[in-house]
Amino acid sequence: MTEKLKTIKIIHLAICAGIIITYFIIGDLSSLENLKLPIIDTSSMIYLLIPVSSVFLSNILYKFQIKNIDKKLKTEEKIPYYQTASIIRLAILEGAAFLILFLKPDFLLFGILIILYIIFLRPTEQQFRRDFENTRL
């Protein structure tokens, strides 16, 4: 089982590394001044919705993909569907992190929170089993 999940683990690692490197280079994280909390007013409220909506949308789509997998399949046969659902989730979060970086660099802190969330979503065998045990809808 662990060997079959290696592909999604490598994809997850590559996405994390790519975002982190991009944030260090373009976001200029060498200066702690860039990490201060920006002033949020009505004109910048839309940029605050990017991380919040990406987390909700990615989780909804992930759960929808997992829920639609045939329950009669063996555990090993569910892995490609799990990989697809995980990639969709990671792509939405990665896109949101890049949107924040390029559209509103003042909100760099919120992009870093998305990156931390992506790191937290590291695929493991326990997570795989838990997600499929909780889909008895």
Number of domains: 1
Low-confidence stretches: none
Q: In one word, what is the shape?
A: elongated
For the secondary structure, the number of strands is 0
Overall average pLDDT = 86
Helix content: 55-70%
Annotation field: number of helices: 5
The oligomeric state is: single chain
| Cα distance spanning the termini | 25 Å
Mind sketching the topology for me?
Blueprint: H1 6-26, H2 45-67, H3 75-103, H4 108-120, H5 125-133
Task: Outline the structure in words.
This protein is an all-alpha fold. It has one domain (6-133). The chain has five helices and no strands. It has helices spanning 6-26, 45-67, 75-103, 108-120, 125-133. The protein is elongated and about 50 Å long. The mean pLDDT is 86.
Short key terms for the protein model shown above:
5 helices; mainly alpha; 137 residues
Short description:
The chain is mostly helical and 137 residues long.
